[in-house]
User: What shape does this take?
Amino acid sequence: MERVAEEAQRYFPEARIEIFSSDTAGSAEAIRARMARMTSGEIDILIGTQMVVKGHNFPKLTFVGVVDGDLGLAGGDPRAGERTYQTLVQVAGRAGRADKPGHALIQTHQPEHEALTALAAGDRERFISAELMMREMLGLPPYGKLAAVIFSAFDQKLVDQTAKSFVMK
Assistant: This one.
């Protein structure tokens, strides 16, 4: 985030910039004070983590930018698309809540992902439809069930053999 702040300062040298993350948040009172400064317009650019998304209303906010907006899609979580979509809708919805229109810019390495194409189109139903179709094809909930099975032993070969025989049954 410091790198983003440096770039913002370079392009907007007169801007009052603050970073808001778990490292910089401070006490509950410090968080409230920072949010009050943002609401009143004392902060021009607030660079933050997902902490900024949750439950804050900034009437003067007209632009939201997200760096690596598709990061949550990695890792194999079957709900990754849904969680990413929900988070990005929430953060994009922070801009333009008052009398000025808002804009969101989301950096992604996967612009073709259904969560991001539906978000760009403003089409929630499209995302839900694509997500349900993918889950049905893969047998994921609500069309199937998931279970975690852990094999553990001091002998790696025994673990491998047991896991293979378990899958074959």
